[in-house]
């Protein structure tokens, strides 16, 4: 669905510019009245990419501060606006990340742009807080094959990090990962390995050697070794990544069954998309890779099953669970058979409950909050 649009009354005299290309604007969104476009195409692109999620949130942020006689009232208003700007930045950043993991690079661009604008509204036009948005814009452009703007954003990000001695390891880790991606695309594999080694160093310092953040760097490194034809290293890196995800998701599923997952531990949409993309691409072995061992395929399919069960899609969980069971049957005394059967049972219970419209399963407390019906 697209928002309705209205021609602006006096486009020539107005200094409104398009949300996406900053050319003069001729139409506006008639749901918020604070967002302008050069034409229908950019309005539609923005709506699909991010605007539908933030349209109403933009109204207070982009409306001039009203006149307050009391200083306290004015301060309170400004605090509220700041909170909304931060929310806007978080939402647009998360949406851009999610679309990047889904390889929808064109759609990630408007979200990444909005995250940069929101960061600038909050922190000014320089500062390390802008770096995550620069990196999203760089990555979207890398995905679209626009290497020149990607390099420009990366230069700004790098320059900002260099000038910030106390810059966090999280930001440094993201910067090197993005640099690694750029050099992979440019075919400069040695330079890519240098940046990915740095990425892994900062990630393991911050999150630990066996964290899911760190293994994102190993996954990209495997891509480089694949291009160099070093399949032994590719296999060992894939095994490392597969094991990390499997043990992480197994722990998370246990906590989910006990209903003890904390908000920090639960996945957001971007992390969900990243995990799905990474696990699937390892499960569907790329051409030229040696045939995968069935125990690793079982672990990958089991991980995907757990991922989808946690994301409240029992049908997909069942599909991957069945695939995992088939692989596990090829391995003598496979230690995964029992947990896989448990996953299948949970997925079937969830699916039955969803079909019958049951409110909640007693042993499985937080799985059905969206489909609850009062009895
Ligand atoms: Zn435009
Ligand atoms: Zn709008």
UniProtKB/TrEMBL annotation:
Gene3D superfamilies: 6.10.140.2220, Tetratricopeptide repeat domain
A Pfam family matched in the record: zf-MYND
Domain of life: Eukaryota
Domain MYND-type: 18-55
Entry keyword set: Metal-binding, Zinc, Zinc-finger
GO molecular function per UniProt: zinc ion binding
Transmembrane stretches, start-end: none
Protein name from the UniProt record: MYND-type domain-containing protein
């Amino acid at each position: 669905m697209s928002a309705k649009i209205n021609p602006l009354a006096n486009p020539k005299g107005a200094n409104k510019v398009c949300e996406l290309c900053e050319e003069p604007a001729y139409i506006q969104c008639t749901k918020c009245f604070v967002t302008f476009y050069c034409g229908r195409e950019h309005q539609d692109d923005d709506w699909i990419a991010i605007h539908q999620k933030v349209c109403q949130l933009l109204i207070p942020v982009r409306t001039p501060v009203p006149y307050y006689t009391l200083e306290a009232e004015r301060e309170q208003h400004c605090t509220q606006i700041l909170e909304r700007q931060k929310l806007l930045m978080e939402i647009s950043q998360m949406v851009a990340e999610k679309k990047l993991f889904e390889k929808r690079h064109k759609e990630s661009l408007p979200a990444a742009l909005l995250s940069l604008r929101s960061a600038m509204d909050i922190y000014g036009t320089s500062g390390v807080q802008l770096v995550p948005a620069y990196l999203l814009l760089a990555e979207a452009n890398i995905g679209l094959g626009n290497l020149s703007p990607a390099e420009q954003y990366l230069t700004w990000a790098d320059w900002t990090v260099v000038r910030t001695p106390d810059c966090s390891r999280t930001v440094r880790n993201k910067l090197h990962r993005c640099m690694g991606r750029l050099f992979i695309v440019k075919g400069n594999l040695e330079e890519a390995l240098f940046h990915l080694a740095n990425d892994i160093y900062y990630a393991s310092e911050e999150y630990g050697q066996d964290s899911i953040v760190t293994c994102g760097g190993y996954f990209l490194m495997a891509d480089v070794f694949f291009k160099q034809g070093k399949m032994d290293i590719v296999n060992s890196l894939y095994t490392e990544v597969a094991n990390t995800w499997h043990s992480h998701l197994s722990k998370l599923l246990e906590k989910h069954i006990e209903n003890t997952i904390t908000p920090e531990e639960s996945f957001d949409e971007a992390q969900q998309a990243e995990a799905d993309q990474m696990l699937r691409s390892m499960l569907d072995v790329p051409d030229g890779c040696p045939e995968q061992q069935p125990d690793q395929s079982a672990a990958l399919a089991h991980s995907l099953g757990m991922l989808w069960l946690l994301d409240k899609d029992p049908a997909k969980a069942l599909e991957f669970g069945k695939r995992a069971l088939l692989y596990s049957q090829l391995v003598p005394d496979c230690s995964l058979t029992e947990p896989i059967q448990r996953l299948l049972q949970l997925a079937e219970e969830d699916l039955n409950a969803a079909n019958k419209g049951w409110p909640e399963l007693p042993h499985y407390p937080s799985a059905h909050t969206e489909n609850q019906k009062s009895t």
